[in-house]
């Protein structure tokens, strides 16, 4: 059976960086190729680095560094259009304490810095390498890269496609794959520095360690991210077309003031989205369309090439788990390779078996939550807030979070009475 010692990872997103570290630690000869000249595309954006992602990163030795960049979330509240709290739970703090990992917000750039450092030090992270072609035979894989300066080929035993939702690796090994699906929703996504100083923003939204949501028009969301008082806010709204005509521009700087004005006009003047937008530097406001991929159910590998993260199961952002799933994939794939003595076929099969149901559930839940939040059906609109309030106030939401984030995390943790 074919055994792998050298591996090339295509794509230096959260998934690619995590798997590069994990495989390096178990003794593989790793090289990571990122098409961007440096990690600018994600600078300025935040994301929910959830307990399952943190536990998985701690498993490969990043616990202390991660703790420093995660702003823990203790409280969850839902507000109405007048910024009055209509549902809340303070239980997230206890919940986090029980397991030693809190739900939290982090800056993407800070996580990337942590993950790239060991790779840069070892000289195995190659920027400006755009993978264009990949061919495999019975002895190995030949990868071609193209950029302004050079054309280059690399020969390795194994390849991991971690190149995101518009994966070139997928196009090469599964040419029949349908393109990502645009759900006719866009998002404005802003970062506010030093939220404490932004006294024009309603204090309810500025509450520390708190995630705030509103569902009057799609979804409005804020949470703290980073350790210097930064706060992210986003509004997810219905649209006919995505903001950019360039398919590759996933993180597009805001350049459509007209669409922003139209989006904001739907909200009452008392809604905090206006205050958040006014307090955000234009350079820190992103605008993009929401896409997902049909979950791959025909395997995530072909011979020596295997996929992870958004390349095989890109999810919508409604449950904030896409990057966390990519992190989990990375740890799971490394574990399967080591357990199978680096024999690719059994390792890839085991990895797919372990990851399929979990990722499919996340993709589906996120999709259905999106449909529910944005529904214009009058009956659904009328029950939306009572249902969400009941889920939060009754503790049902916490129970399901506990199950997904701790109980089903692929890395077992010490826990008391965990919901399985
Ligand atoms: C609005 C929004 C909010 C989100 N919020 C959250 C959240 O709160 N929590 C969460 O967990 N997830 C969130 N996500 C999802 C998360 O961003 C993705 O799921 C995650 O980034 C996927 O990681 P990845 O490594 O698979 O791919 P990516 O992060 O997309 O990385 C792919 C990398 O591959 C590189 N690449 C692409 N093609 C090539 C090529 N041909 N050659 C070389 N390199 C290439 C790209 O430049 C990129 O660096 C959100 C997504 C969106 C859209």
Automatic annotation (TrEMBL):
What Pfam families does the database record attribute to this sequence? FAD_binding_3
SUPFAM superfamilies tied to this protein = FAD/NAD(P)-binding domain (SSF51905)
Keyword Cell wall biogenesis/degradation present in the record's keywords: the answer is no
Q: Which UniProt keywords apply?
A: Monooxygenase, Oxidoreductase
- Please indicate which superkingdom the organism of origin belongs to: Eukaryota
Q: Which residues form the FAD-binding domain?
A: 6-339
Q: Which GO terms describe its molecular function?
A: FAD binding; monooxygenase activity
Q: Which InterPro entries match?
A: FAD-bd, FAD-dep_Monooxygenase_BioMet, FAD/NAD-bd_sf
Q: Which PANTHER family does the UniProt record give?
A: MONOOXYGENASE, PUTATIVE (AFU_ORTHOLOGUE AFUA_6G14510)-RELATED
Name the record gives this protein: FAD-binding domain-containing protein
């Amino acid at each position: 059976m074919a055994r792998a010692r050298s591996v090339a990872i295509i794509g230096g997103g959260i998934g690619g960086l995590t798997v590069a570290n994990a495989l390096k630690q178990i003794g593989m000869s790793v090289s990571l190729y990122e098409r961007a000249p440096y990690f600018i595309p994600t600078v300025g954006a935040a994301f929910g680095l959830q307990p399952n992602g943190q536990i998985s990163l701690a498993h490969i030795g990043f616990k202390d560094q991660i703790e420093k960049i995660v702003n823990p979330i203790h409280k969850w509240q839902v507000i109405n259009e007048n910024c009055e709290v209509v549902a809340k739970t303070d239980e997230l703090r206890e919940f986090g304490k029980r397991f030693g990992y809190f739900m939290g917000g982090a800056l993407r750039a800070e996580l990337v810095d942590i993950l790239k450092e060991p790779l840069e030090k070892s000289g195995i992270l190659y920027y400006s390498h755009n993978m264009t072609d990949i061919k495999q035979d019975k002895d190995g894989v030949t990868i071609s890269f193209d950029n302004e300066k050079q054309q280059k080929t690399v020969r390795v035993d194994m390849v991991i496609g971690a190149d995101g939702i518009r994966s070139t690796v997928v196009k090469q090994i599964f040419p029949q794959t349908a393109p990502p699906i645009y759900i006719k929703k866009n998002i404005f996504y802003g970062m506010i520095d030093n939220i404490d100083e932004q006294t024009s923003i309603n204090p309810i939204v500025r509450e520390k360690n708190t995630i705030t949501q509103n569902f009057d028009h799609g979804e409005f969301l804020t949470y703290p991210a980073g350790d210097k008082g930064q706060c992210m806010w986003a509004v997810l709204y219905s649209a006919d077309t995505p903001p950019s005509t360039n398919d590759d521009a996933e993180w597009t700087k805001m350049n459509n003031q007209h669409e922003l004005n139209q989006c904001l006009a739907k909200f009452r003047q008392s809604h905090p989205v206006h205050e958040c937008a006014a307090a955000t530097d234009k350079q820190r406001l992103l605008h993009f369309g929401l896409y997902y991929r049909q979950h791959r159910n025909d395997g995530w590998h072909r011979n020596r090439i295997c996929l992870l993260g958004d390349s095989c199961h890109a999810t919508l952002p409604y449950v904030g788990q896409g990057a966390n799933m990519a992190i989990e994939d990375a740890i799971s794939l490394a574990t399967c390779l080591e357990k199978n003595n680096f024999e690719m076929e059994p390792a890839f099969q085991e990895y797919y078996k372990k990851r399929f149901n979990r990722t499919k559930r996340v993709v589906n839940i996120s999709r259905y939550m999106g449909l529910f939040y944005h529904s214009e059906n009058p009956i659904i609109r009328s029950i939306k807030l009572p249902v969400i309030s009941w889920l939060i106030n009754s503790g049902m939401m916490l129970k399901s979070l506990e199950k997904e984030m701790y109980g089903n995390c692929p890395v077992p943790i010490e826990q008391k009475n965990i919901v399985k």
